[in-house]
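Record DUF4893 domain-containing protein, 238 aa.
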Amino acid sequence: MSSPKPWACPEAMECVTPVHPPTNTGMILPRHHHLLCIFFSILLLATQPLSASDSPIEALKNTLRPQHQNVMDDWEAKAQKILQTLEAKDIDQESIETIAAIRKLLDQPRQPAPESKALIGNWRVRSLQAGGLGAYAYPFFKCTITAEARALVFHKPTGSQRKHGILARDNNTHYLFVGAAYYGYENKVRSYSAHLDAPTEEDLQRDTIGHLYLIGKNHLLMVFSPDQGRLEINELKK
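=>
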């Protein structure tokens, strides 16, 4: 396998003992307490004014910041523009192959969004990214989808580029992902900034919104909102 592009942060070897602080106390808890962080994030959904008829997706959408409410509109057109712009450049063979892999995943027929119980479990995930300088496909790493309170939680705690957030079924076509990105060298799991008591500017910059689609048996596609000429998708397999 060739080395990553200079612009791409290379995925590190799988972390053996990640650490996850629970709150703003700064204290590091043992590995098996990381679910506390997830639980507190879910509980913050309850701070929104909800009626008895509110569904998980309505509750989750109520937490979106204004700049994120329509960020997934026309994502397919934006993604195609990024790929076309990159293809018009003098790119290497690895980028050409990665773009072909991205297109193949995006062209897969999308099936109706499954019930949440079909998503729960251990998965393998890889990130495929395209931007101004090229395209790169990372290897597969471990991730999980778990049931917590009224929602599902996606967490990729392995590799150098990590994600953590909440999933809720939207219109029977896909699941909405609202979460955050963080790095393996950080000593905490990040969550969506609006789910935090006192978010910092860096928390806001790490906010991540996406859609999760079923594209086959035990085969998922997660697309994150194209941003500033950069596209990232995740392929998940069991």
